[in-house]
Design a protein that fits this description.
The complex is a heterodimer of chains A (274) and B (758). Chain A is 34% helix and 25% strand. Chain B contains 19 helices and 30 strands. The chains are: A alpha+beta (274), B alpha+beta (758). Chains A and B meet through helix 12 of A and helix 3, helix 8 and helix 19 of B. Bound molecules: flavin-adenine dinucleotide.
C-alpha cells in the first residue's frame, strides 16, 4: 500500500512531457489523474522510476464542437465529460457513461485520456468510445498521428501508443438522431463493471461496445451486422459475445459474463434514450 | 422546572470536532513529547498459508536505507504462548518454525520512515517448505494435515468436550409430521473499521512504558503488555486516543501490538506502528465463518416442535475469541424467539489456514438468528404457510418474568408478538405481498421479495458491572471517568446526559475520560453492546451518589439538616427545601471541598435480551440475478431509550453491516489459502448507494436488570437485518423453485439458483 520510491517531474507543456518521457525511456510514465496508475504503484504492481505529471496541462482540458464530431482534450476530467452540454447534446452516450465511472472523487481526478491510454478492458470509456467509432490523436517526439479506436487496443493494458507518445485528443462522431443505451452491471454503485455495454442505434445502423468481456474492450460487430441485416434486437443480442473471450474472476464465471452480455446488449439496444 | 434530558434527541457533543478538525487517532499523536524521534515498525508477513520455515534471511533488509534494526522471533527468544481459549494450542508471536496463514507476522523492521520499512520488508527472504493449505472448515476435520499437532482433526473446541449432549441425528426428529433440513453458510466477513490498527510506544526516563493503542479495551491490554515486557502493571500506562471503529476486532491485543514494547527497549527509541489497509484485511481478525447443519420439525398446522443445529465454527489459524462464539453465544441463543420444546445444538470449532476469527458485531448471535430464521422459512415453505404466520404461531408469548428456553438460556423480558405486529404494519407487509402477487402473475423480469425476521439476542454478556467516577471541579464543571471505551458510539454525549440528569450540570460542562489505565484502571471496555446497561448505568448511579455526598456538604455550608437539602437541577444548586434564595452551587460545594467526587463499581445481575423484528423488501432482476434492497423496516427494542438519535444511528449502521453480509461481503481465499479480497475494491464493503433509507419502529420494553432500563443496541441492527435480507432474496425467486441461497446473495449465485431450479 506504499509505492516504491520514484522521481517526480511536472511538465509545463505537452512537448516538454514528451521529451521528458523520451529522455527517461521505459522507466518513465505519464501521470494524469493517477487513478489507475497510483493504485497499481501502491500495490507495487507498477514501479516506474520517474513520473511525468501532465495533470496541470489545462490547455489539454477542453470539449469542442467541431461540426460532425466533438473533440475532447485528453486531460479532461470525467466530471467535465459527464457535465458537458456539448456532449449531452451531441454524444449523450459518452456523457452518460462518464457519469458511471467510479465515484464523484474518482470522476474529479480521473481523465478521459488516462482512461483510454491505460486500455483497461474493465474501464467504461474505452469501450464506449470504441462503440462510438472514435479517433484518438497521439503526439510523439516526431509529431502527431491519428489512431482509430478499433486499431488502438492491442492487449490487456496494452495499446498502439509508443511509450513516449502522449494521447492528446479524443474525437467522437456525433450521434445525431440515434437512440442509445448504457448498461453497467456491477456490485456496488462505485464499482467497475462486471460486464458493461455501450450502444447506439440509428435505424439499422448501430455500434455496440463491451466492457470487461476479454483482455481488451470489445466491439460487438456480429450484433451490428445482424441489426444491419434486419435481425430483431433480441436475436442480435444473442450474438453479443461472438467477438468476446471473457474470463472468469471472483465476480463472475465466463459463462455468466456471456449471459449478462446478451441481456445487457438487448437492454441497451432497446433503450429509447435519444 | 425543565423536564428530564433523558430520552431526548440530544446532538452529539463529539461531532463538531470530528466534522471539522477531525479526531486525534493514534497516528496523529505528532505533538506527544514522549514520542519524539519515534521510528517506524513494519512487519514482514507470511506470503504462504501453511508452511515450515526453513530460514529467514534479513541481511539484505538490514542494509536497506533508513533501516535501524530487523528482528525475528529468534532474536527475542520468543517462547510458544498458549491460547486463552484452548491452552493446548500454542504459537510464538512472530512465526518461527511454521506459518499458518497469509499475513502472519514473521519479522519486524525498524526504520526511519514507514516507506523505508515497506521497501525493506520486500527484501526479507523466507524459505518455506509448503504444506497443504487447509482452507475449508469442513475439509479441515477430514484431512490428515494438522495445523497444530495438539489439535486432532483440527478441532480446537467442541461442546461435547464441555460435557454438553451430542445431537442424536435422525432419531431426534422421529415423531415429526414435517421436517425441513438445510445447510447454511454464514460466511467469513472482514470488520473493516475505517481506522486500521495502530499503536505507539515509548519508555519514559522513569522506566515506565507508555503505549497508545487503537483499542476497544485498554484495561484488557494492560496486563498482557506488562507481562510481555516483564514489568509490573503499575509500570505501564495504556492510553486510547480517538478510535475509528472496531466492531469487535479491536477487543483483544494482537502480536504486532504486544511486541512494540520489547522492540522499543532494544532499539532505545519510541516507536510507531500502523498497518496498511491491505495488511489489515489479512491480519485484523475476521468475523462470522460458520457452517450450519439445521433440521426443523413439527406439525402441519405450523407448530414447530423440534430444532437441531450443528454449527461448525471456523476459528482461522489461531484459537482466538472466534472459537468460543459458537458454544457460548450461538448455542445459548439457538431457540431464538420461539417456544420450541425440543432443541439439540452441538458446536465444533476448527482451525484452518486463514486469518483468525474474532468477535464481530453480533459475535455468535447473528449466526444463531440466521440459522433459526432461515430454518423457519424452510419450514413455512414446506407446509405452505406465510413465513410471518409461522413465526407468530411459534413465538414465546409476552413475558415480564424471566423465561428459560429448551437449551437452558434465561431471557429477561420479551414481547415478540408486538414487535412483529408493529413491524409488519409499518412495513405494509400485506401491501407488499399484493404487489409481489401482481408481478408474479405478470411474469415480470423484476420480482419482489419480502423477508421477515424476528430475533432476540444477548447483550452485556461480558462483564458483571462497571466502574464509574464522577468528579465536580471547583469551577463547577464535571469530569466523568468510565471503564467503557467509545469508538464511534457517542458515549461522550450519552454519559454526559446521564450525569447531567442526576446533577443538573449542563452537558456542555461535563467531560468524559476513558481508556487510560492511569485514570481509569478498572474497566471492561466497549463490546457486546454492554456500555449503556453497565457503564452508563454506573455513571447514573454514581452521579446519584455524588449528589447525596454534595447534599451533606451543602447542609454544612448552609448550616441546615442534610435531609432538608434539595437539588434544584435547573439552577444546578442546592438549597433548603422551601428557601431557594439561599443556595450553594456545585462550584461552591466543590470549592469548599477542593473538588468533590464519587466512585463506585456498580454490579448488574446479568445480561439483557434485546429483541425485535425486521422486514426487508428487495427487487430481484431474474434475468441477471441482481438484487436491489428497496425497503427496510426495523424494530429494535433496546429497553428504555436514552437518546433516540444515537439509537437510530446504531440501527442504521447495524442494518448496513447486516445488509452487507446478506448481499455483498465475503472474505475469500483461493484453494492455496491466498486471500483474494484484501482491499476495498475486491472486498465489497457496502456504501450508502446500495442501501434504502431505513424506517425505525420505536418500541421500549425496559429491562429490570439495571437502574435505567436499558438493553444493548449496538449489534441488534446487524442481527435482525441479515436473515430478513437473505430471506427476502430467496422469497423473490421462491415461486421459481428456489428454497435457499447462501450469503452473500451475489448476482451470479441468484442467477445460478434460478437456472438450477428451472
Ligand atoms: C476507486 C476507483 C474506482 C474506479 N472506477 C472506475 C470505473 O467504474 N470505471 C472506469 O472506467 N474507471 C474507473 N476508475 C479508473 C479511473 O477512471 C481512472 O481515472 C482512469 O482509468 C485513468 O485515468 P487517470 O487520468 O487517472 O490516469 P493515470 O492513472 O494517471 O494514468 C493511467 C495510465 O495511462 C497513462 N496516461 C495517462 N494519461 C496519458 C496520456 N494523455 N497519454 C498517454 N498516456 C497516458 C499513464 O502513464 C498510466 O500508465 C476507477 C478508479 C478508482 C481509483
Amino acid at each position: 500500500m506504499i509505492p516504491a520510491a520514484f522521481d517526480y517531474k511536472r511538465a509545463g507543456s505537452a512537448a516538454e512531457a514528451i521529451s521528458l518521457v523520451s529522455e527517461y525511456g521505459e522507466d518513465a510514465k505519464f501521470l494524469a489523474g493517477g487513478h489507475s496508475l497510483l493504485p497499481l504503484m501502491k500495490l507495487r504492481l507498477a514501479q516506474p522510476a520517474v513520473l511525468v505529471d501532465i495533470a496541470r496541462l489545462t490547455d489539454l482540458s477542453y470539449i469542442r464542437d467541431e461540426g460532425n464530431h466533438v473533440a475532447i482534450g485528453a486531460l479532461t476530467r470525467h466530471h467535465d465529460v459527464e457535465n458537458s452540454s456539448v456532449l449531452r447534446q451531441h454524444v449523450p452516450l459518452l456523457a452518460h457513461a462518464a457519469s458511471h465511472v467510479g465515484s464523484p472523487q474518482v470522476r474529479h481526478r480521473g481523465t478521459i485520456g488516462g482512461s483510454i491510454a491505460h486500455a483497461d478492458p474493465a474501464s467504461d470509456l474505452p469501450a464506449t468510445t470504441l462503440a462510438l467509432g472514435a479517433t484518438y490523436v497521439a503526439q510523439g517526439p516526431n509529431g502527431t498521428r491519428e489512431i482509430a479506436a478499433s486499431d488502438f487496443y492491442t492487449g490487456f493494458l496494452e495499446s498502439a501508443l509508443a511509450p513516449d507518445e502522449m494521447l492528446t485528443e479524443i474525437r467522437v462522431p456525433k450521434t445525431t438522431g440515434a437512440t442509445w443505451g448504457f448498461q453497467k452491471f456491477n456490485r456496488r454503485a462505485q464499482d467497475w463493471a462486471i460486464v458493461g455495454v455501450a450502444a447506439w442505434r440509428r435505424g439499422n445502423e448501430c455500434g455496440v461496445g463491451l466492457v470487461n468481456m476479454g483482455s481488451t474492450p470489445v466491439l460487438a460487430t456480429s450484433v451490428a451486422s445482424a441489426i444491419a441485416g434486419g435481425a430483431s434486437v433480441a436475436d442480435a443480442a444473442r450474438l453479443a459475445s461472438e467477438e468476446a473471450e471473457p474470463q472468469a474472476d471472483m465476480n463472475a464465471t465466463a459463462e455468466y459474463r456471456r449471459h449478462l452480455a446478451s441481456v445487457l446488449v438487448r437492454r441497451a439496444l432497446e433503450s429509447q434514450s435519444a | 422546572m425543565g423536564g428530564s434530558i433523558l430520552g431526548n434527541r440530544v446532538l452529539r457533543k463529539e461531532d463538531p470536532k470530528f466534522l471539522t478538525v477531525g479526531g486525534t487517532y493514534v497516528d496523529d499523536l505528532l505533538d506527544e513529547p514522549l514520542l519524539d524521534g519515534a521510528l517506524h515498525v513494519t512487519y514482514v508477513r507470511s506470503t504462504v498459508a501453511h508452511g515450515v520455515i526453513n530460514s529467514i534471511d534479513t541481511s539484505d533488509a538490514l542494509a536497506m536505507p533508513g533501516v535501524r534494526a530487523v528482528f525475528t522471533g529468534a532474536d527475542f527468544g520468543l517462547e510458544p504462548v498458549p491460547s486463552n481459549f484452548n491452552p493446548m494450542v500454542t504459537r510464538t508471536l512472530l512465526a518461527m518454525d511454521k506459518v499458518r496463514y497469509v499475513g502472519e507476522p514473521i519479522a519486524a523492521i525498524v526504520s526511519e520512515t514507514r516507506e523505508q520499512g515497506e521497501d525493506a520488508a520486500e527484501t526479507v527472504i523466507v524459505d518455506y517448505d509448503i504444506l497443504e493449505a487447509v482452507v475449508d472448515m469442513e475439509a479441515a476435520m477430514a484431512t490428515s494435515t494438522l495445523i497444530y499437532d495438539s489439535a486432532p482433526n483440527n478441532v480446537v473446541f467442541d461442546t461435547l468436550v464441555l460435557g454438553m449432549p451430542d445431537n442424536t441425528g435422525e432419531a431426534f426428529l422421529a415423531g415429526c409430521e414435517v421436517v425441513a433440513r438445510g445447510k447454511f453458510l454464514n460466511q467469513r466477513v472482514a470488520p473493516c473499521p475505517l481506522e486500521v490498527r495502530g499503536a505507539a510506544v515509548a519508555w519514559a526516563a522513569d522506566g515506565r512504558l507508555h503505549q497508545w493503542l487503537s483499542t476497544q479495551h485498554a484495561q484488557g491490554a494492560h496486563g498482557p503488555i506488562a507481562a510481555m515486557n516483564g514489568v509490573d502493571q503499575a509500570q505501564v500506562r495504556v492510553r486510547t486516543p480517538d478510535v475509528g471503529g472496531g466492531f469487535g476486532a479491536k477487543i483483544g491485543i494482537y502480536p504486532e501490538e504486544l511486541l512494540l514494547g520489547p522492540i522499543s527497549k532494544r532499539v532505545g527509541t519510541p516507536l510507531r506502528w500502523r498497518e496498511t489497509r491491505s495488511e489489515s484485511m489479512m491480519a485484523l481478525g475476521h468475523g462470522r465463518a460458520q457452517v450450519q447443519h439445521v433440521a426443523i420439525g413439527g406439525k402441519r398446522d405450523g407448530t414447530v416442535t423440534h430444532y437441531q443445529l450443528w454449527a461448525i465454527q471456523d476459528s482461522g489459524a489461531w484459537v482466538d475469541m472466534g472459537a468460543i462464539l459458537a458454544p457460548f453465544m450461538t448455542r445459548p441463543m439457538a431457540s431464538g424467539v420461539y417456544a420450541i420444546p425440543n432443541i439439540e445444538c452441538r458446536t465444533t470449532s476448527v482451525v484452518t489456514n486463514t486469518t483468525p476469527i474474532v468477535a464481530y458485531r453480533g459475535a455468535g448471535r447473528p449466526e444463531a438468528t440466521a440459522a433459526i430464521e432461515r430454518a423457519m422459512d424452510l419450514f413455512a415453505r414446506e407446509i405452505g404457510m406465510d413465513p410471518a404466520e409461522v413465526r407468530r404461531k411459534n413465538l414465546i408469548p409476552k413475558f415480564m418474568e424471566p423465561h428459560t428456553t429448551a437449551v437452558g438460556q434465561t431471557y429477561d423480558v420479551g414481547d415478540y408478538e408486538t414487535a412483529l405486529d408493529k413491524t409488519l404494519t409499518t412495513a405494509d407487509y400485506a401491501g407488499w405481498r399484493a404487489k409481489q402477487a401482481e408481478r408474479r402473475a405478470r411474469g415480470d423480469a423484476r420480482q419482489l421479495g419480502i423477508g421477515v425476521s424476528v430475533y432476540v439476542e444477548i447483550t452485556g454478556g461480558v462483564g458483571s458491572g462497571e466502574e464509574a467516577e464522577v468528579e465536580v471541579l471547583p469551577n463547577g464543571k464535571a469530569v466523568v471517568y468510565t471503564g467503557t471505551s467509545p469508538h464511534g458510539q457517542g458515549h461522550v454525549t450519552a454519559w454526559a446526559m446521564l450525569a447531567s440528569e442526576q446533577t443538573g450540570i449542563p452537558i456542555a460542562d461535563i467531560d468524559l475520560v476513558w481508556g487510560d489505565t492511569d485514570l481509569t484502571p478498572v474497566g471492561s471496555g466497549t463490546m457486546g453492546s454492554r456500555s449503556l446497561q453497565q457503564g452508563g448505568n454506573a455513571v447514573f448511579v454514581v452521579a446519584g451518589q455524588l449528589v447525596e455526598k454534595a447534599k451533606s456538604v451543602a447542609a454544612r455550608l448552609l448550616e441546615a439538616n442534610e435531609n432538608d437539602i434539595v437539588l434544584d437541577k435547573d439552577a444546578g444548586a442546592f438549597h433548603v427545601a422551601g428557601t431557594p434564595a439561599l443556595s450553594k452551587t456545585w462550584a461552591d460545594i466543590a470549592s469548599a471541598e477542593g473538588g468533590i467526587s464519587a466512585k463506585d463499581n456498580i454490579a448488574v445481575p446479568g445480561p439483557t435480551f434485546p429483541f425485535g423484528a425486521h422486514v426487508a423488501v428487495v427487487e430481484v432482476d431474474t434475468e441477471t440475478g441482481k438484487v436491489r434492497h428497496i425497503a427496510h423496516v426495523a424494530c429494535d427494542d433496546a429497553g428504555t431509550v436514552l437518546n433516540p438519535m444515537l439509537l437510530e444511528g446504531q440501527i442504521h449502521g447495524g442494518v448496513a453491516q447486516g445488509a452487507a453480509q446478506a448481499l455483498l461481503e465475503e472474505v475469500r481465499y483461493d484453494s492455496d489459502g491466498n486471500p483474494i479480497t484484501s482491499n476495498l475494491a475486491d472486498y465489497a464493503f457496502i456504501s450508502a448507494a446500495e442501501l434504502p433509507s431505513v424506517t425505525v419502529v420505536h418500541m421500549e420494553t425496559p429491562t429490570p436488570r439495571n437502574s435505567i432500563g436499558a438493553k444493548g443496541i449496538g449489534e441488534s441492527g446487524t442481527i435482525g437485518s441479515t436473515p430478513a435480507l437473505q430471506s427476502a432474496v430467496v422469497d423473490a425467486v421462491s415461486h421459481l423453485g428456489v428454497s435457499h441461497i447462501d450469503m452473500p446473495t451475489t448476482p451470479e449465485k441468484v442467477w445460478a439458483a434460478i437456472q438450477s431450479a428451472r
